Each structure stands twice: as structure tokens, then as C-alpha cells.
Amino acid sequence: MNTLLIANRGEIALRVMRTARRLGWRTVAIHTDLDADAPHVRAADRAVRVSSYLDIDAVVAAAIDSGAGFVHPGYGFLSERAPFARALAEAGITLVGPSGDVMDAMGRKDAAREVALAAGVPVVPSYSLDDDPATYAYPVLVKAAAGGGGKGMRVVRSADDYAEAFAAAQREALSSFGDDTILVEKYVESGRHVEVQVMGDSHGTVLHFFERDCSTQRRHQKVLEEAPAPTISDEQRSAITSSAVALAEQCGYTGAGTVEFLLDNATGEFYFLEMNTRLQVEHPVTEEVVRVDGGRVDLVELQLRAATGDPLGIEQSQVTLEGHAIEARVYAEDSFHGFLPQAGRTSIVRWASTPGGRVAARDERRIETHIRVDHALEPEQEVSTSYDPMLGKVIAWGTDREAARTALVAALDDTAILGITTNTGFLRTLAASEEFRDATIDTAWLDRHEVPEPDAALARVFAAWTEVLLDTAGTSGPWRADGWRMGGDPAADMVVLGDASAVVDRHRGQVSLDGTTHGVRLVSAADHTVHLLVDGVAEHAVLNVQSDFVDVVHRGQRWVWDRPDPFADHAAAAGDGTLLAPMPGTVLAVNVAEGQAVAEGETLGVMEAMKMELALKAPFAGTVTSVGAATGDLVKLGATLFVVETLAEGIGG
User: Fold this and answer.
1) What is the pLDDT of residues 515-569, one digit of tens each?
2) Which of 25, 90, 147, 208 is paired with 318 by a 20 to 30 Å CA distance?
């Protein structure tokens, strides 16, 4: 039995283990103290602690100690480090990947450029660092020769900005890669990122498994990936895939690799960018659309086959395409507030699935879709900022691109991660956009455009309706996994959610908030999932309702609101002595007049809504400078009822 150590963590470790286990291989996981109980650790046949996933000596020692004859590096960490490949070779252990010499040749952008030129592959026009920057045709791109992922990369639009951008890229390159070598190339204003999956064996065979389009990216970080590329012609596809094979053959490539190209939208020309000497994050979209003699391809299986010295056993003519696939990367980040990384503990985690696939009819055709999810995230799991923020990948396959896209939108609707904020709502909004639908997004689109943040109104409807549902059902505290008891008479109630409130009338089937009344009908409610008809449209959300907050995910987007006591005294809502109506209702009493001095906590007035009376009290001692309503008035949510100024302000005024 072959033993395989996976020198990685998270979803890619689990992905590799699935194939290894199917092939009868024994698996070994490595982990740090932070990951001691992680899913990939529990899934392996054996686990070995290491001080760091980046410690070459520790990882090699773990492989020796566990008797592993092979090491799969996954992606990130040590996957493209030539010293790691050489250290394994010296220990008599086979890396599932290319040799250290090939990594050296292709892992650096400057060296890879020379290999591409030797193979006759077109490269981006470049400039010599010895030339006068004033002679460059701007814009240009300065980028680190030794790295990737957008680090050490700057777009320069004028000679005046060149020196500062060059120095900044150089500093970042040295910090990130230990090498400050910089390349200067033509910058393509509007381009598409097209990459080709290649696979080579030690018998001289190099195959391509067609291309992927990864143009939907932000600051050179991929967001959505798809296969095949939706905008290229058959002639472009043939030229790009044959160039990728020629490049891999030129460097004697073995294992899985990706050759990346930039397609200039203005000219239709394509240029070699770089080669990734490992399996890519987005490899599932290739696996979903590529067929070998009619069956889906498993790239990890082919990697292991090549690593053992066996021939791939495939001819290029056997490799075909079927349908379309799109992948969305789910990250622990707040995409609508600066893309800041998030950390914390999950509560509820729901990943989408389509058991048996979905079948629909469109234009008299049979449209089929299915969903694949690669992840390593569970309920009650701690998410740290110590590692990459990617939590998982949602991949949709469809008979055609539109089927795959709509299936992905539906799958992201069904994805709910509570406890921490993720980019799922951002991904859902982006995948549902006209720009992505029409494949007009280029590599810089997300840097030029903002994706609109989803409206919170429907999520508030769910939160308010569910809170009342639980109260009338006699259920309090965390929701039970076995669902809710349904009972009690329907009643109208006011629900406060953070700084807003809603009025819920279950008897009439209405929720009123922000001046709008929505028709609501309960379809079902069980195990934290609520299905409603809102204004006649079927919607669903996943909620975690606690005594002091409610956590809601609707269409992938997460909202969290405090649940203040609606019967508590209402002080200054605006924090400056202005008391606003906390809900729509009727003013029952006005106890003060303009110019009147009041003490802190003195009741200024009383209002009523949905059979509840709320006392509006002075937030501090002062003078009433404004009274905005009279007894008997009907007031809207947020209406200004009283304004109080401090004694000093009142006297001075």
C-alpha cells in the first residue's frame, strides 16, 4: 500500500485524501497546534504534528516518521518551493509534482519568460530596467519576478509615478518572496485571464485539459472561475492550448501544472504570463467539464499516476469537453466593508447540495445541473486569521453556461455560514449580475466597479417574523435541532432589531418596517431554516435567534442585529438628545412643553403601538427645545418626537 502525506490543510487536504482513499492509498495529515482537531486531521489514517506548514525540515521529518513514500503539497505553503522538492528527493521521498529544477525554471516569472520564448510562445512585451522610464509607453506593469498572487505588483500610468511604484513593488517582493527582482511589462487595460490545465508524465507525454477563464478577480486575486472560457473562439482555444503544451514540453514538465495567459480584448492577441507548478484552487471546474472517453477526469488521480512513474495512458484525442462549470471561492471576509478578513467561531454551517442533480427544461431542451462543494468548515469551528481565509468552494456544473450560472446563484442562496461573516452574499450578487451573465467582466472590472451591497429589508422581515414566531410558540433561547413547537394565538408585536424596528401582525400576515408593509405567509420552519412567501415571492433564510441577538443569512449575505428589550425606557436614539419614534404608533400623552426644564429620566411622553406602551424619557437633565407631536397623533417609525438640550445649552440658547 502506498502512503501519501498531504503537506497542506483544509479543503485541499480533504480533496486529495478522497482520491487517495479511493485508490487504496494510506493517508497522513500534518497539523499545527491550532489545527489539532481540524477536519483534515480526523479524516487521515494518521496525523503528525508540525511546528509550521512552512517548515521544510519538519514536514520532511513527518514524512519519514510516518513511512510516507509520497508527499502531495496541495497549493500554497510549500507547493512551489524548489528547496522542499529537493529536500524530499534527498530523503528518498517522491513529491507529487515537478522537480526542483523545473520549479526553479518555471516558478520565477523572468526564467519562465525565457522558456516561453524558447518554446515559441508569445510573451507580454517588456522593458529593460536599463532603459529610461520616460521612454516607456504607459501604462506599464511592474511585478515581482519571484512571486504571484498580486504581491509585488503595481500598475504605473505615468513616468512621474514610476519610481515610487517600482520601489513599493520591490519592497513588497522582498518581504513576500525574499527576492526583489522586478519585471516591467506592457499593461493590458482590458484583458481576460485564460489559463490552461496541463499534465505530463515521465514518459514524455504532455496533455492539455482545455482552459479556464479566471477574469473575475480583484487585485489579481481570483473570485469566480469557469471552464471552458466563454469568450474565446475555437481558433484562439487551439492556439492557447497548443502553446501551453509546447511550454510544458520545453521544460520537461511532469505532473499537474497551469499555464496562464492574458488575452488582450482590444487586439485578440494572447500573451504568456506565468506557470503555476502545482494543482490550482480552481481545478474542480476542469474536472467537472473535461471528459476522458466520456467519463469525468480526476486530476489528483493523474497526479498520483505520474508520481508513481506510470504513464498517463491517455491520448489528447480522448480528452473532450461537456457542459460548463463555474466556481465561487468562499472566504472569511467582509466584502462590503473593505474586504477585511474575519475570524471567530461558526455556529450554523449549511453548504449547498443537489442530490441526484437538478433537471429542468428550457427552449425545449433538457437542462441538467449539479453542485459540488469542496470545503473543510463545520459548525462550532474556530476560524483564525493565521491561515488563508478561504473556507471552501462552491462549484456548479450545467449543460450550458447559463444553466451553470443560475445553478451557482441558487447554490449560493442555499449556502449559510453563521457566527462569522463571509463573502457569500458578495459572490451571489456578482454571479447574478448582468455583467457576469454576459461575460463582460475583465481582469480589472472589480477594481473599477463596486458590487452593490444587498438590501437588508428581507432579512429584517425574516428576523422579525421568526422572533415573533418563537415567542408565540413558547420557545426561548437557542433553537432546538428538532424544530419548534407550533402553537399559540397569532398576535401583533413590535420587534426591535439593532437601531430599527418592525411591526409583525401574524393574524393579517404583515410585517411593517421602514415605511413599507410586506405581505408574509409562513410556508415552513424547522431546524433554523424559515421558508416564507414575502409579497408573493418564495424566500428562505437561516437564522440563529438568541436572547440578545439574531444572526440571519439570506441569499448568502449575513446580518447580525442586537435584540434590545422593546419595553425598556427609550433614551436618545440619535445620541444627541433627539428622541425618535421607535416604531409606528399613536402618541398617548405629551407631558412637556417647549422651554420646559426636565430631569434625567423624566417621562416626556408615552406612545402606543400593537398594544404596547413605551415611555419616552429624557436622556439627561436639560431643556426641551422641540416637541414634534401632540396627543393622539399617528407617527411614523423614526419621527422626531422630542429634542432635549443640556442645561448649559438650554440656558445659553
Assistant:
1) 899 999 999 999 999 999 999 999 999 999 998 899 999 999 999 999 876 555 5
2) 25
3-state secondary structure 319-367: EEECCEEEEEEEECEECCCCCEECCEECCCEECCCCCCCEEEEECCEEE
Q: Helix, strand or coil for residue 437?
A: helix
Is 379 in contact with 349 (CB distance < 8 Å)? yes
C-alpha dihedral sign at 286, 292, 298, 299: negative
Checking if the pLDDT of 1 tops 90, the result is no
pLDDT band at 298 (very low <50, low <70, confident <90, very high): very high
478 pLDDT more than 50: no
Virtual torsion, Cα 415, 418, 421, 425, nearest 10 deg: 30
- Which of 402, 410, 317 has its CA nearest to residue 362? 402
Cell of 593: 412643553
Nearest by Cα to 605 from 624, 408, 620, 197: 624
Residue 496 pairs in a beta bridge with 501
Average pLDDT over residues 142-160: 87
* Chain-centroid distance, C-alpha 249: 35
List, for residues 54-101, the tens digit of each pLDDT value.
Answer: 999 999 999 999 999 999 999 999 999 999 999 999 999 999 999 999
Nearby residues of 624 by Cβ (< 8 Å), 6 or more positions away:
592, 593, 594, 595, 596, 597, 598, 604, 642, 643, 644
Active site residue 296: no
- Identify the weakest region by mean pLDDT among 198-202, 488-492, 640-644: 488-492
| Contact residues for 164 (Cβ-Cβ < 8 A; gap 6+) | none
Cα–Cα nearest to 422, from 536, 551, 295, 254: 551
Cα 618 from Cα 28, distance rounded (Å): 66
| Contact call for residues 335 and 342 (beta carbons, < 8 A) | no
Biggest CA–CA distance in the chain, Å, is 94
**419 DSSP assignment:** S
The larger pLDDT score, comparing residue 357 to residue 30, is at: 30
Catalytic choice (26, 218, 278, 305)? 278
Question: Which string of DSSP letters, residue by residue, matches 305-320?
Answer: HHHTT------GGGEE
Percent of the chain with pLDDT over 70: 91
What pLDDT shows up at residue 59? Answer: 98
Q: Provide the pLDDT confidence category of residue 476 given band limits of 50, 70 and 90.
A: very low
pLDDT value of position 486: 42
CA distance 422 to 330: 7
Query: Helix (H, G, I), strand (E, B), or coil: what is residue 402?
Result: helix
Phi, psi of 87 (to 5 degrees): -65, -40
pLDDT value of residue 409: 97
